[in-house]
Write a structure and sequence with these properties.
alpha+beta, Arc Repressor Mutant, subunit A, 2 domains, 9-stranded mixed β-sheet, two-stranded antiparallel ribbon, globular
């Protein structure tokens, strides 16, 4: 459809809305530069509006009323920054996953959502009506390439209180998110998102941090983003260091100092997290799952997965009850043409 570039939308963006819309039984339609869906069931009813702002940023508006208790899950392939505000009196839902929200002005909260799954409990009679701007690490990396050294710590700022100028810019950006959007609003959404980030970078307290510590934090964030984007490829430490234009020793030391774990251990953990997700949400074979997380040989994948979880992949899937009756792959979500 005109105004909506489905090709430019990244796989990471799709995972930010596909799990929920699948669970809600919502069919999405291309409309006015984005995706829209409605649902009216005995358990819940409402509407959603999704607008990609390029391949690494997504704005979402939804208004869902829950008529029965419901568990609603989200999944992300990578850490991402989020700014969210509620349009109704009900408080924002709390998740069972790790999600630390920072209160900003105008009833907004910002947060850094770690990669993986979170589950929200939506009680009967509750209403969730929110506007959110969701920004993947690659968005910040593109800004850093254009304006090197000027956005240090910007991603981490989503976990800290913002000064009034940044909060006002954020409130204005969120006001552009909603069902009232018209065609060709992607440019406007991006302009307000970039203005928010520029103001945040200018006012953020992270700009007065120790420069060396800030550089190492940025390096670790870039390493994590690279890993999440290349789980099915070469993730040798030498390859990562080369891609980030940094020495192997410096990368490993910075990663360990900043995270408390080794880079190699983090890579294994992320690959196994993704493997568990694919085993639970697809019916694909073990060899296919192994290839998606960087193992060309099924025996190598099985050995690595067994060491990590204590169970072979097939056994783990069976115990999760996903062998035959599990949900379909997220890429199978139905998006209808008008």
């Amino acid at each position: 459809m005109a105004g909506y570039d489905a090709v430019a939308e990244s796989r990471e963006l799709r995972t930010l809305y596909c799990p929920q819309t699948e669970q809600l039984g919502m069919e999405l339609h291309h409309r006015a530069g984005g995706l829209e869906g409605r649902v009216d069931k005995d358990s819940h009813r409402g509407r959603i509006r999704i607008s990609p702002v390029g391949p690494h940023c997504l704005v979402i508006w939804h208004d869902i009323t829950f008529l029965r208790d419901m568990e609603l899950s989200e999944y992300s392939l990578t850490d991402y920054a989020c700014l969210i505000a509620s349009d109704c009196k009900d408080p924002l839902p709390l998740s069972d996953g790790i999600q630390i929200c920072t209160a900003q002005e105008d009833s907004m909260v910002s947060l850094i959502q770690p990669a993986g799954s979170v589950t929200y409990h939506m009680p009967a009679g509750s209403r969730s009506c929110t506007r959110s701007i969701n920004i993947l690490p690659d968005y910040f990396m593109e800004l850093d390439r254009k304006w090197p050294g000027q956005i240090n710590g910007l991603f981490e700022s989503f976990g800290q209180p913002w000064l009034p100028d940044a909060a006002r810019a954020a409130s204005t950006a969120l006001s552009k998110v909603g069902p009232e959007q018209q065609d060709r609003t992607g440019f406007l959404l991006k302009a307000h998102t970039d203005l928010m980030l520029a103001t945040l970078a200018q006012t953020s307290s992270t700009t007065i941090q120790d420069p060396e510590s800030s550089r190492d934090a940025d390096l670790v964030w870039q390493a994590k983003a690279y890993i999440q984007s290349h789980l099915d490829g070469d993730l040798s430490i030498n390859q990562i260091a080369s891609s980030l234009y940094v020495g192997r020793t410096h990368l490993c030391t910075a990663f360990s100092d900043q995270t408390g774990t080794s880079l190699a251990r983090y890579i294994r953990g992320q690959r196994m997290n993704q493997a568990r997700h694919l085993l639970a949400t697809t019916r694909e074979g073990i060899a296919w799952v192994g290839r998606q997380v960087g193992y060309d040989r099924p025996s190598s994948f099985t050995a690595a997965f067994t060491r990590e979880t204590g169970l072979a992949p097939g056994t783990w899937r069976q115990r999760r009850g996903c062998a035959e009756s599990g949900p379909g792959h997220y890429s199978q979500i139905q998006i209808a043409e008008d």
